[in-house]
Fold these 4 entries.
Entry 1:
Amino acid sequence: MKAFDLIAQLTRLRRIHTDCRLYSKINKEFSKAPVTVASSAPDYLIQNLRNARSSQNVLEIVKDHYNIMNSKQVMQALRSIYLLQKQGSQDLSTQQIMKNPSFERLCHKLKSQAGLIELNETIEALKVVSYVGVSSTSTIVQVLLQLLRHNINDLSLHHIIFLDFLLRQFKSSPLVEALLIALPIVFDVNLPVKIETRNVTYLVEYLQYVSKKRVSEKCISLIVNNLKTHCQDGSVLEPKLAKSIIWSICDMEDNEFFEPLLKDALNAMLFNIDAFDWRDLETTLSKLATKYSPQYPFYYDEVFYDTCASYVIDKDLGFQEALYTLRKMLKPNHSNEKLLSYLSQKCHEDPHLLLKAPPMTIFTVAISISLTEFRPIHWETMKNALAETTCFQDYKKPDILWMKLAAALCSLDVYKFDVLDKCFSDSYLESMIKQRNIFDFGNFILVCQAINAFQPNYAHLLPSTNIINNIFAQINHNENYPLEVPLIKGLGGEVYVKTGVTSKLAHHIDHVVVLRKGGYPISLPQDAKHLEDITVAPDSQIVLILVLGPSHYTINNKKLKASTALMIKTLEAKNYTVIPFSLEVWEGLADFEKVPYLMQEIKSSIENEQNMSEIR
């Protein structure tokens, strides 16, 4: 289908009514326009227009020579006005130019000569009248748009990209809207025959354009594959092009197809990191962090995250930039201890940064520090500020995730009554249960466990056991137990292993074993409903085995998250021996290594526990 026909259909569908009388008048004027015969003699009028020192000077030349001006001279007059205004030779404002009688006559002359100007000149003329501020409903703009409409198949890909940008500077009109709908379709149709595969700059511009348009997958693939070919040939992307590729990919729907090109662009950006200012790096980090998900992990790049952190520290960008950077690192669970230490140093230098900080700042600081068990160098100063701040008392905006904040503070051993009181209010719990956010449920259970184990003075804030159990029941626990068979094999039978056990405090334990003195297993009562129902002799030890997936660790240095560590501590507070196993490490073992590894870890943990007991 030709683009012309496509526009006609689109305009009909959108009930766009064109002014037939206007088109008739335009066509008559085109037919009356004199044909200018090219001359080899120099065109002194064009030279004078080029040499004009101001827009006023250009308009005076137009006034004096209006009757003899041809299409080339009209275009030069428009071109000179645009360049002079852009260069700062602004003796007249754009408003004054638009209202100047000579400019009005220049537009009238352009309209009468419109049938003689080339396609490039049509676009250029539209650019100038747009810059000056001529209305999209004016006759001259309508004439130029009609010319573009009739020649839409002759537009180059760059014409299309620029026109799309240019048309968005105009107020909406039927013809503007029709063209804006048609241009991406024309781009899509013409790309296979008009693509300039050897020009990386053009390819990057194509990608930027389609990243914000609805085009076919074939169109996107063609651009991306050509860019990948350039990278595979050993060509190093220029810094600005690399940045543009990353931003464009982040503006499109998630797709693993982008991974190789994104990695190449990130490597090029890192290779030329000094070519970027902080605004570019921060925006890139924000886009990558927003796109990251466990389903599409390739949007995460550890080196780039750490490079951004180092940039903040090396350039001493201050507390706020460090805070914003840490916030962006939270989604993929990226930990950077140097940046946390830098932040704590700023808080030590000025304690009011936290004491007088707004709620969202305190929220970000608490969440960032509680990511792992690492505590930065002036941690006590920060901890005191977190405990003493009163910013949450009367705060009612919905931008704070209260249960997440409470869990983070508990992980930091900071129990704030005002925060806990909000979390356990009837209205908040009712809203949380309605929203069915699995992360809120997990944080809720953790806070209840922490208060029960370490802050019994706040136990009166906790909801009823029924509410806790109902929320716990909403959490879908993984019922895949990869350690079960090796444990049974290593301990000598099913009677020594109990799998999928819960506690009365809503812990979920993968496996429970009991070992008597000497490390020998004891059979377990299979009818025990809860962990607390398992009783043992004084010389025996209950061992809880937890299998922890990637979400329990930081993505970069694989450190145990503080929330998981707190959950383990709540079990240890009840005199259980807890042994966490990393699922990632487990899956990396050969089959013949798994049983010996399990038995050795259990033996080491029991011995360490016994040594600690003797010391105590």
Note: The first helix runs from residue 3 to 13.
Entry 2:
Amino acid sequence: MRIYDEIPTSVLAQFSTLKIEQAPNFRDFRQAFRAKLGRNFVVPANSFDNVKGEFPIGFFIWHLGEETIFTQTITDIFDAKGNCLGNKTLIAYDSFNSINDWIISTRNRPGERNIGFMSAKGNDFQNTNYIFIINDKKQLPHPRGTWITTKNIKEISIYLAVRHSIEATWLNDRDQFLYPNDGWKSDREFQNNCLVFTLFSNSNNIQSQHGTNHWIPFSEEEVGAQDNFESHFMHDFIMGKVKEEKPQQEGTIQDLFTEQEAQTPDGNSFTPTEPLKFSQEAQAVLDAGRDLWRYYHKQAGANPNASYYDIKMHFQGTKTTKSGKVQMNSTSEDATYNALLADLRQSMKLLAAHIEPKVYDYGFLKK
């Protein structure tokens, strides 16, 4: 800021990450640093020696003599060899609320019951690996996120699917996820696609050893389980069998034997009262997942409450790293399991591609 204050008519060159242009923590700086942005371009950070990581480095020319608040620009994109890859719109996001503001609004609904915890950090692609689901926040040394409940499972699934369905790259690394418009509320297919994506995402780390597994989307009969499941919540949710009584309003008489569909504060239903209808892509994921569950439950000593994570760990096993951390192996020696998992992952890729356009349509990301 010294150059801006002491040489106000100069031309300033910036060579850095995109924090000045896009980071939420630089919002106040952008309001104070009022200069016209001239020519600019971005390249991958690892174009430079001794630089690791997948993120953009930008070259920007600022004309300090022309007072303008930066809101957005169209920047040229070059690869490490200097080839032009097109252009991209860089947005400051100062006038937008974040996706985390949106998910916070789903907390503390009447009658909710916890079924898991979602770790959530940051609003951009660089924090994608911090978006995952576990049983309880006690599993994390410094938990940041939100409880998953019987009343916000729909929004949580959308959140996770939106954050993970689009691959993180060096170019979108700093792009911010935003508070959506209301279009998603009436799109049942999108909601159901996101639910299925979340159930079979590699970021769904629910484990039966850490508590009740509420995330089994099948019945015991469908997968040939050797014993009853401890929880049928997810299957009941999918089948529209989770019934709740609507709170009786003062001055009215309610039929106590009539089960009502629960509502969010804005009147949007969060509990289905009939079986969910799935797209072809989502149904393919469910079918592939069911085949994997069936194969697992044929194994001796199969845990009836096993989660997707548990099933993968059963077949892939674990290893201990040099630091003493226990990790799941990346492969299995079971050829049948490998084939079933490959089918499931391929179906998940197709489902992710089906979800992606809606991420932009509903304003979760800007193009």
Note: Residues 335-361 form the longest helix (27 residues).
Entry 3:
Amino acid sequence: MNIKQKIDNLRQEIDNWNYRYYVIYQPIVSDFEFDKKLKELEKLEAQYPEYYDYYSPTQRIGNDINNNFAQINHIYPMLSLSNTYSWEGINDFYNRIKKILNENFVIACELKYDGVSISLIYESGLLLRAVTRGDGTTGDDVTTNIRTVKSIPLKLYGNNYPRFFEIRGEIVFPWAAFNKINKERIENSEPPFANPRNAAAGTLKTLNPQVVSQRNLDAYLYQLLGDNLSSDSHYENLQLAQGWGFKVSNIIKCCKTIDEIENFINYWGKWKKSLPFAVDGVVLKVDSIRQQSLLGRIAKSPRWAIAYKFQSETVKTTLHSVDFQVGRTGIITPIANLEPVLLSGTIVKRASLHNEDIINALDLHIGDQCYVEKGGEIIPKITGINKEARLTFGNKAVNFPKNCPACNTPLIRFQNETAYYCPNYTQCKPQIKGMITHFASRKAMNINVGEETIETFYRAGLVRDIADLYEIKIDDILQLKRWAEKSAINFVESVQQSKQVPYERVLYGLGIHFVGEVVAKRLAKAFPTIEQLSIANNEQLTTIDGIGNQIAQSVIQYFSNENNLQLIRRLKLYGLQLFTIQKIFIDNKLAGKTFIISGIFRKYSRDKYKELIENNGGKNVSSLSAKTDFILSGVNMGPVKLIKAQRFGIKIISEDEFLKMIE
């Protein structure tokens, strides 16, 4: 046997041991024997670098090189699931599927893992890329970190898998590993992770793959996607994937009746804490891929699936005090400080009280015994008070402040709103820092700066508003402690690059109350320049789809403030995009034609197809009518659109047909 064959045999043997240990829990060698073989392979690979293989089991460990996460577009959108906490919701889902399909169907019931969603792309049996959910359209490329998760195969078994496919699942932090790392963090005077989901998410975004490798994350796969799947059955596809080396839970049941579904949910609702990982419900999916395609999707979720969320656990503890926090928009949020208590596997010390109305409804007093639960097993909240246990003296009632806890400005409360606001946004420190953080965020200006750095700049007097970011010089930063020249240069370059961010994102970054991403896009389209928007009246604003009186008044109020107008003049002076760049038609091949885009696409994103339509003289519309010329259809086109298209005689075209039209 030559050296190459010996190395190949060792790799194959260790891959097999990894699979048996991490995926099917059937180890066949001791840890000592495994480590011995791994070291032998490492030694041979070091001696014969010409036989280096990126997919070798020795390459899972990672290295100390930091990497920035690239943004990757999903081939298929990573939709979120509709959810319910009631049997009524399950029955509604089941009956809706029954009515739409009007044929026999099977529901696959699976556990809902409480971790981080991941999309894995394989080509020719090799792991090509791993991407987080992100915003559902675009996610972070975390391939380097995912390679260290030992239950995810770098190279598949057998040869009966599709040449190119995607498989999705959940990265979880098993309870044993989670408890171990929290114990170590406490011993090292580090704050413990709040729960396994947060720990998994934080670990996956760590820039050091070696740290990820040491934390023993696990992965369960639950959906196969691709053009050439072996079976029409979701369940059968998962069983095939298990044979390729993927970890697929055996806790999955194909149900033909509503009673079977309820039995599955009841069983795991009772025994969920016996599992080695956190779960927060059960996912129901129509098993047939064909039927899934017929059912299609709504804006954010598939019609063919729903998540049943387990009811929250409730515990009793003591209220010690209440803090009132100031958010970036000036909203005052009361936070209860509690006697630490174990709730759903985590230590709870704080809970949101949301607003004054809730405090008054609870009749909250310091020292009260409170009933606390986690909404959806995530956010702690006080749901009640044990008034019988309240002392007859010494319990001080919790009263909402009349003045801002940060700047002492009298608070205001708008009509029909439950929140109180601090109106002093130009001088209130938490608002200033929050506004700058929002402005610099990825979805706005995408400036490479975090909350801690903004705090440092604020304390040094470098920033008091968003425009000040554009005045900071490298020399200013180098005067601060622990700042290297390279970091200072990177920050300043990031600020300069933000000047190319389009108008709609600048508008979103201004932080106008009630103006989120979608509203900012609509305003930018209706008013191509900031000057036009600044003089718009209520009537002009409310004629825009999706903009009501509340948003309109907020926009008008913002631009009626001289401080804001002065801020915008400064931003304009610094060269920010405060106008819409008019699109120039590349061609007029689609002139006079209207299109609706529906479904999931393989070659380009929906936004890219919309751009191609407009660049070739066509028009995108949002609703079907007899005047619509074409439906550009991908996978999972909605059944309602299909019915309407047939009624109106609208031509349905594929991606390839569309691309031929604009060649």
Note: The two ends are 56 Å apart (CA to CA).
Entry 4:
Amino acid sequence: MKSWFHATIVAPGLVPLFCFFVAFLAGFGFIRLSVRLIRAQVRWWPGNVTPGGLHIHHVVFGVVFMLVGGVTGLAVPDELTVWRCVAASLFGIGAALVLDEFALILHLKDVYWTEEGRTSVDAVFVAAAFTGLLLLGFRPIGVADFLDFQGEPYALPIAVGFTLVNLAFAVVTLLKGKIWSGLLGLLIPLFLYVGAVRLARPGSPWARWRYVPERRRGERKMADAMWREKRFRRPVIRAKIWFQELIAGRHH
């Protein structure tokens, strides 16, 4: 384990990113524990921060943590690794607090324990998965393409071309309603290729534009998409919701 950690995290210079990742998970775990204790009205837990009757959401504290951590990380010289790790940890805690109330930012109202509040948990899971893949050595498609062709003649135009093609696949995948595939595909392009060529989800923009009676085989594709959604997608979503509620609490 020690040799793996050194080869995967220390040698490539990913220790600050690792600190961000650990702090992000710890921050999310703590704040979810806190809000669940508050919701259960546990007497010994401090409860909400309400100076003068004003309820201060934890997204506010998250913004402060992100500002302090971000500015510190930019100001500290690269050779001061410990301080860069401290800054990354502060930024990770702040990011967890902000994304935990992502739905509040998106809807501009308190939907924390409602169905819309699941968006916050989705955002946290996406951020955690994205960071975890970066730690494992995956690189965003633009960076990966450039590194693959580095040193070759016309490396930059080739890398730009591959990047544009992959981004086009990403746009198609997202338009087909496959958010997870589109985002993870920015690191693992195979998700993009599979997501782009398969049927769109029934409620996606792609389905509304193309799976219409006026287009050839439009109705057939919509029927197939509806069947796939019911047969395969919904059980996966139910499993995802069960797992998220196990960690983050039940929404209503």
Note: The mean pLDDT is 88.
